[in-house]
Amino acid sequence: MSFKELGLLNELLRAIEEEGYATPTPIQKLAIPLVLEGCDLMAGAQTGTGKTAGFTLPLLQRLTTAKNQKPNTVRALILTPTRELAAQVGANVKTYGKYLPLKSLVIFGGVNINPQIHSLRKGVEIIIATPGRLLDLVAQKAVDLSQVEILVLDEADRMLDMGFIHDIRKILAILPKNRQNLLFSATFSPEIKTLAASFLKSPKTIEAATHNTPAELVSQLIYPVDNKRKRELLSFLISSQNWQQVLVFARTKHGSNRLSEQLTKDGITSAAIHGNKSQSARTKALDDFKKGIIRVLVATDIAARGLDIDQLPHVVNFELPNVPEDYVHRIGRTGRAGNAGEAVSLVCIDEHKLLQDIERLLKRKIPSITLPGYEPDPSIQAQPIPNGQNRGGRNNSASSGRRNHHRSGHPNNRHRR
To answer: What is the mean pLDDT of the chain?
Structure first.
């Protein structure tokens, strides 16, 4: 099937062709016709499946071909959990909408609000936003959402994980009742189904991949090692196997910084990204990583959500996440767009239970190799993973942290992600 067979406008087909795409992905084949029909949609799609184009392409077409159009009025709202994902979706909208007369704006916290207010005053048709900053703009009467025709909740599962459910409900309450709703999520948990039932109207349900199954092109491997020797083993693997581009997951912001500094001392160029980094620092670190200026990007789960890195060959779990689904999200950063990828996990005795949970979710054992010289010490006993670090950065960096940010007094703290 070609994109033309999906009934897309010539202006969209021209933009798609210029990006070098010829055939739609499975999620695009399923989603695009349903969105074009005006259906509400509940779509299950893993990272790297092309889901963003699956909703941006038909959204752009519906706005362009609708009757009684109102220029410079917010007609479509796309909500995302992180500013990185908002920026990525915004770039997608601009890329595919370059030959259409639609203006879009990306809105997130952690940056000055005044330029966003200024852009809104000039008028836009499409807003891509994180929930907290959008509500700030609503409170200041800087944005009018009364004419929204299409609402998209992207990565809805992550929004719930990050504690955005109350913000989402506030936004839903101020939107017009008569609109099209699209919900995209990597998982259909009971919480997601409850949320979907609260605002989707007779939705079509589609899933492009097997539930919670990592990309088949990702090879997975476990290296057992004592906790205190993880950094040493990581440096050895990167150097001995000549890995040039590695995304490493750590549990905490502090741990990300420390690991990045240690790798740099080992002669391996590295940078850390997490919620306490400024947007400019995060953007620079990601750009340097993509360009090959640095070999290793150390990230927390929240900071890495929405990162779009083509042909990323290696992902390393320096520490396993407590929530098995986060493992699936992490390794989904590699093995994208038909490229092979490798996911390596450094597992100490404290994490054996976490590994069992992950393997139970995957319904398979992950191969394990013990490297000579890095064998775990059998005399070491398992220790509980400290509170605040036990969810791959989720509790430490998401909803609980968000509530703490409210108390800190900094006007942008609630939007650091």
So the answer is: 85
Fold of 4-207: Rossmann fold (3.40.50)
* Nearest CA among 149, 130, 140, 28 for reference residue 84: 130
In the block, tokens 């990597």 appear at 186
Rounded CA gap, 345 and 327, in Å? 10
Across 383-403, average pLDDT: 43
pLDDT digits (tens, 9 = 90+) for 129-138: 999 999 999 9
Note whether 32 and 8 are within 8 A (CB): yes
- Spatial neighbors of 393 by CB under 8 A, at least 6 apart, are 250, 251, 252, 253, 274, 300, 301, 302, 321
How does residue 150 score in pLDDT terms, banded at 50, 70 and 90?
very high
Mean pLDDT of 161-169: 89
* Nearest Cα residue to 287 out of 87, 15, 17: 87
Query: Phi and psi for 66 in degrees, rounded to 5?
Result: -65, 150
Residue 399 corresponds to which amino acid?
A: S
| Predicted pLDDT of residue 409 | 34
Cα(59)–Cα(417) distance, integer angstroms = 26
**152, 55 contact by CB (below 8 A):** yes
| pLDDT tier for residue 290 given thresholds of 50, 70 and 90 | confident
Query: Distance (Å, rounded) from C-alpha 41 to C-alpha 55?
Result: 10
Pairing, β 270-273 against β 218-224: unpaired
Q: Which CATH superfamily is domain 218-407 in?
A: P-loop containing nucleotide triphosphate hydrolases (3.40.50.300)
